[in-house]
Amino acid sequence: MISRVNPVLAGWALVAVSLICLPLARGEDCQTSSDMDEATRAALTGAGQRYFGMIAKGDAASLKMNSIPGVASDFSGIEATIKDNQPKLVGTQAVARPPFLLDAPGTAPIAHAEFFCGVFGKTGQTSNSAAFYLNNLPPGKYGVVLLDAAAAKPPVTVSFILQQMGSDWKLGGLYVKSLQFAGHDSDWFITRAREYKTKGQTHNAWFYFLEARELISPLPFMSTATTDKLYDESKGMQPPDVPADGKAVSLSAGTATYQLTALFPEAVGNDLDLIVKYSTPDVSNTNAAYANNVTVMKALVAKYPEVRDAFAAVVARGVDPNGRDYGTMLPMKDIK
User: Would the pTM of this model clear 0.85, i.e. be above it?
Assistant: First the structure.
């Protein structure tokens, strides 16, 4: 399967975004582009453009040399991201969005760092604001630099998390995010989600809102007025029989009952597939694992026939107690 998001963040755990309006009296500080001085703004944007050029040239070695020690010591993830995305970025120019400067004070990692950047109104975020949520963030100064490569196929946003090391801004994290899937942007998926909602197809509506949210923000730990608006629209729409917050749901299939642990859309090539994960005692017997996967897919589509109209295929993955999994994909037309 092809992932459109390739995050590497020096081992920092990312916290799920809670898009509610929170008080701004925090120890962490954030500056928007208009808040910071010209030298800092230019240094951040220049570093982002320079590192983008390295990716476009496939120059992983130079990017590694310009990374913080924690990233440089385990560079395989970023190297794979460069290899995957360099062909679409070669020869392209990137336009930088206004950067952000995050200041994490203290001498120890911050368990739940929250940065609120710019002006927040009485209803929440405004057009130029942003919020960032990170777990276990080491103290330091960080830059968030977002660059849009509109000429790439498909258009992408390349995001850099930079950490100040002396007078330099070193790479601390890299994300490459497609802004379209199969030629469709987030607005297209929002429109389809609303159509499904009108038809009473609540599962399709929820899954397409998820895909819209996936496309709309370049970083999984960043929220803006746009993402908050989409969150507000889809809030409360999640069907109760979709796994959430670590809670599994039951799926009956004949005399057997399976515990589903995840159910979500995912782009695979040019198809949008529905991914289902479930708990299983063992995946070492691949014949039995395959049979269980097929059983789960058939039961799922039988329970929610509406998904036939929204997805090209279903991917079932049985996951054992040790985290090992076995996956099977079937085109929707073959699930009978």
Answer: no
